[in-house]
Amino acid sequence: MSELTVKAEKLDAGDELAAKRAEFVLDGPEGAVYLDGNSLGALPVAVPGRVADVVGRQWGEMRIRSWAESGWWTAPERIGDRIAPLVGAAAGQIVVGDSTSVNVFKALVGAVRLAQENGPGRDEILVDATTFPTDGYIAGSAARMTGCTLRPVEPSEVPGALGERTAAVLLNHVDYRTGRLHDLPSLTAAVYAAGAYAVWDLCHSAGALPVGLDEHGVDLAVGCTYKYLNGGPGSPAYLYVRADLQERFDSPLPGWNSHAEPFGMRSEYAPAEGAVRGRVGTPDILSMLALEAALEVWDGVTVEAVRAKSLALTDFFLECVGTYVPEGRVECLTPLPHEERGSQVALRCADAGPVMQRLIGRGVVGDFRHPDVLRFGFTPLYVGFADVERAARVLAEELA
Known about the structure:
By secondary structure, the chain is α/β, with parallel strands linked by helices.
């Protein structure tokens, strides 16, 4: 037994979150090591039974009554309040529904409208130059729609790029390729000082590390729920609008669900109060309630405990890679300082695509990003230290 194997056993024995692993559907000890929760979280064991009840009883037996009697109508806000503590937000500021892309569009156009309402001349949108491509596509469309110029900027360069023309800034909290954690507090403060509005994409941070939306005065934020929140493939995303901005938030997608009188069927639109303004049309109840069941795994868990384990897992993985993998075979793209690291490790490897396929064939599941990046996501609620040691050891064997 190697020194690192012994260390993994000791770390697992002292893991305060170890019991949470039993709340997920995972392969046995000899099965796969799942390190792709930063793309799709594992299935919580409570979800299949809850979905069966929603389909068989709430829909099958109660039918239309379930909108009121089963709480379908209020699910977007109720589940939003369940997510709120995980991103550092008070209740009443998050609504769940639609996709991340749709919510980015709502948030960004809403941010520009807020800025332009404050005064003329705000006609520029800054967008994270390293962003996930869809955010860039949406930002381009939002710019055309609002008469703005779109300017891609590296996150670290945002403070120097802000000016009197800046209306809104769209940033990713964690870089999806490298796992770099950007400085949300200082960047938000810089945007605010410039008179612009900050929109944060939390897809790779919510459920993995503290965000502090309220604490740091974030204006608007969006995020998906199928990564670290384990909501399932295509589970609905969410939109955060800070409480003091909600009365002025002008969504570019007004719908009957966000109307002050949704069943009044009036020809003119009058927005509802609060987070409900972020709704559009009829919510996807099946995936919405699957997400609600999935969020139960967070009962009794603090984000701080998750962050501590996340850093310990990624530290240990980097230690194992450094010990096992032949020198010069991979290059770590993920920052080493804890304050700059999300919950994944990205390794540059010349033949990354074929290597990842071989890893998956041997039961170590990560993913590949073109052209040469191996990504490994560490979900603290179900990944253990023995998983980490095994993953690094198998990687080394494939690269030898």
